[in-house]
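agent> fetching stored inputs for the S-adenosylmethionine docking request
agent> found them:
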Amino acid sequence: MGKLRSEINVKEWEQLPWYDLLSKMGLESFNWRGLETWNELMNIHKFPPKSKILIVGCGVGKSAFYLAEKFDLNVTGIDIAEKSIEIAKQTATGKNLEDKVKFQISDAHELPFHKNEFDGVFTEYMAYFLDHPRAFKEFHRVLKPSGYVAFNELMLESDIPKKKLNQILEAGTLFEEIAGFKLNVPFISDYEKWCTEFNFKDIQVHFVKKKLNLRDLFQLVGGFKNFRKITKIMLYLWRKSPIIKKKFKIQRKVKWIVFQKRSTAKYIRPTICIAQKGD
Ligand SMILES: C[S@@+](CC[C@H](N)C(=O)[O-])C[C@H]1O[C@@H](n2cnc3c(N)ncnc32)[C@H](O)[C@@H]1O
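agent> prediction call returned; pasting tokens
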């Protein structure tokens, strides 16, 4: 811990927005079913090599690199989290992929791109934060004619009992205290509705087949060595900062309802929804 004491300026960490804090700790991904979910998307629709893809809410860019390296796609990642984008850019330099994978800070609701620029617009574990009408309009605008929007997301099943839905909604509201925005998991039918409303066609919904395993869990945290580093930093911040400790506690509660507590989590399905831009 002595080394951490000299390395970590607790006050600085307390100022970081939630996702920047997690990225700085070393977390690399939030997709609980792992990178292979992109293989499932590519099985539904094969984006040809060199396709221009926008990943909205890309975090530190793990999926952006995966898509570029495995499928030879040209990827742009955007996120509002400044530290995450800084880390993503450093990784691109380290991997010598700056020409193929680009990152910039920007908001999903006001994309800094021209109309008809991308062959695909993807989201991953972030669309529950969006103002959907505004975002859908933007996704439609920046897509080329006949381009595809794809949501690799958690979505709610329609048969959820009211009481369970309320628990999830409460957890989502609680999340606002740490992230500054609510976590508002939409129904599968909401995606279908928004796609239709915002002029997308051929909507396909696919339940993610890939199950979570230990290997994926370590992938989320960037390997075992990184996992140990993250745990150490977390414990240190937990002990030294009541502000961050409170955030971790809230996160634990929200995670419990959304991912772990069977009676609520079973209604939240990792799902891919893909649709083609209409005329
Ligand atoms: C749960 S993380 C997911 C990160 C990454 N997609 C992944 O699956 O690992 C959600 C991300 O969405 C970003 N985000 C939230 N609202 C956003 C917005 N309006 N525009 C762009 N990014 C946003 C957050 O900063 C965060 O990096």
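agent> quick read of the result: The domain at 2-277 is CATH 3.40.50.150 (Rossmann fold).
agent> awaiting further instructions
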